[in-house]
Design brief:
Elements (H helix, E strand, L loop, with lengths): L9 E2 L15 H6 L4 H10 L13 H7 L10 E2 L2 H13 L3 H14 L9 H10 L8 H10 L3 H4 L3 H8 L2 H13 L2 H7 L1 H16 L4 H12 L7 H14 L11 H9 L3 H9 L14
Parallel strand pairs: 1-2
Helix pairs in contact: 2-4, 5-6, 6-14, 10-13, 11-12
Length: 289
Amino acid sequence: MPRFGHVSLILAPDRSKLSKRHGATSVGQFREMGYLPQAMVNYLALLGWNDGTENEIFTMEQLIEKFSIDRITKSAAIFDQAKLQWVNGQHLRALPSDEIAKIFGEYWKKAGILLASEGSFVNAAAEILKSGVESISDAEASLLNLFSYPFQASLSSPEAKVMVEDNLVEVAQAILKAYISEELQSAIEAGHDGWQKWVKTVGKALKRKGKRLFMPIRLLLTGKTTGPDIGAAIDLLYKAENSGIVSPQAGFISLSERIDILSKVDWDRLSKGLASHTLSLQNNSILSH
């Protein structure tokens, strides 16, 4: 006679029966949400089973090799969406670079962010952004974030306040001067070494180094206080501006547009506003007219 068995019951985080009200319930829905098939198999295998070690990431071949029915647990398993995200991210980043670029590129084009799904820009963007992506759908938000320039909003942060009080204007002036003379563009085109050389030159001229140099440059050119490697990010922005690959609907703020915004900042007004704690970035623009 055949013998049958099954893994333990899978419950929602509140320990109730898993249902549609807890989110996606079909394999197709999870695929649409950006989860890889191999990651789903890996995570589902962990719900009610383990191999007796601390390892949680398995390929299909490893699961087949290690599976043993006596390792199935009797207690109910909890479906943890955050854990699934983590497992998916591990599988995603384990893919070869060209495969990640292909997946991201197709997704970016389908989402209407890019006009093409392959090329040097796609390859570079995928390589830089993959570290912060847990699911394929996260790639959309990551690229759109790179394209955005929330400079004015970022100035309300405590980190930006410190930079403004530390003479942020002198770094802005150095960037504007370098862009007008095309030194900045030449540094970007020269690659990593060219960028590093330019940054060191600016730092030496302004007697700045470390965070006092890198953080203001990041804020001024990306509009943010955090993000991927600043040199790589600026290189991507420059490629995006000159490749024509970005869709008009992507909300892309080019490097030249960012420079134009910086050139119109009323730095005296900004400094006085922050000093008196009365500056409202939503209702009181710091751009001069």
